[in-house]
Design goal:
93 residues, 1 helix, 98% helix
Length: 93
Amino acid sequence: MNMRIVSAAAVAALALGVTACSKSEQAAAEADANAMATDAAAAADHAGDAMAEAGSAAAEEASQVGAAVADGASDAAHNVDQATDKMAADAAH
């Protein structure tokens, strides 16, 4: 009978140890999962920042191209105006 009590106590102690180990492992796994979620959120935020920066750079480049086109059109209009003035002056003489 004493052997049964000792055996039961050993099994109970072993079961408590396994349960405690399982809970600590679960807590560690949960902490790891939370850390990974935080890292994933940070990576997504960084990716969003990179996309916004790329969009901003593209907008700046488009603005520069638009300004260059406008300058070119203005120069062309000025040249046409000068040419028509010269043609009108030549026709008057």
